[in-house]
Amino acid sequence: MPKYIKDTPFRILSSDEERRILVTLNKLNNRERLKNLFLILRTTGFRISEVLSLKIHQVWSGIDVRETIALHKENTKGKKRGRIGSLHYENDKTRRELRKYLLDLEKQSGHLNSESWLFPTRNGNHWDRSNAYDEWLELLKMAGVQSCGFHALRRTKISNFYKSSKDFVLTQQMAGHSKPQTTEGYIYFDVQELHRVNLLSSLGRP
After folding, report:
1. What angle do helix axes 32-44 and 151-165 make, rounded to 10 degrees?
2. Closest C-alpha among 132, 144, 116 to residue 57
3. Residue 159 near residue 12 (C-beta atoms within 8 A)
């Protein structure tokens, strides 16, 4: 089993890398679990431990896929506070894929137990992080993407969210960070670039 790869402090995935990962996933058979894990991580910015511990009722209303995922505080790092993550991404791609994945689970078991794990294993436990990581590394290799840990997806979401919103407080809340210094560590280069653009603008330079 490979050791977890420690991401460089500012490692994020480019849009081209994300595209290659999705293209590769779409070509593979029996990798729906990995595809939905990737999409949820990329869409919500949740930690890998938070996503692997999700239960079906947190994403499925009983009729359709929810528009948001409510993380209970027991799911989160430090178990201090819960938070909400939106599932809207690229014309609702994440929700469409989740709907298909859940309907397949229902066919396999005959029904959807709301208290079952979203990413179950045959022994009834939720998907183990080390096993998920093995599949993730294999996927990156097939996609021609430089190896990185799951946390790179979280950094990518937080960075892109800040670039889009330009709202530091909102970004901190979305990330679930208790300290602003933690959020600063995720978007350091984005903040520096924003300051540079503002400075050039004030000087009347392009």
Report:
1. 40
2. 116
3. yes
Handedness of CA 16, 41, 140, 152 (dihedral sign): positive
Q: What is the 3-state secondary structure (H, E, C) of the chain?
A: CCCCCCCCCCCCCCHHHHHHHHHHHHHCCCCHHHHHHHHHHHHHCCCHHHHHCCEHHHCECCCCECCEEEECHHHCHHHCCCEEEECCCCCCHHHHHHHHHHHHHHHHHCCCCCCCECCECCCCCECCHHHHHHHHHHHHHHHCCCCCCCHHHHHHHHHHHHHHHCCHHHHHHHHCCCCHHHHHHHCHHHHHHHHHHHHHHHCCCC
The two three-digit tokens of residue 67, written as one number:
């528009």
pTM score, whole prediction: 0.84
Which residues, other chains included, contact 108 with Cβ-Cβ below 8 Å and sequence gap of 6+?
Answer: none
Lowest mean pLDDT among 31-35, 72-76, 158-162, 190-194: 190-194
Give the closest residue to 59 by CA, choosing from 118, 1, 7.
118
**pLDDT at residue 197, rounded to an integer:** 42
Query: pLDDT tens for residues 161-199?
Result: 998 888 999 999 999 888 988 888 888 665 555 555 444
Confidence of residue 1 (pLDDT cuts 50, 70, 90): very low
Give mean pLDDT, residues 6-23: 84
Contact 15, 160 (CB under 8 A): no
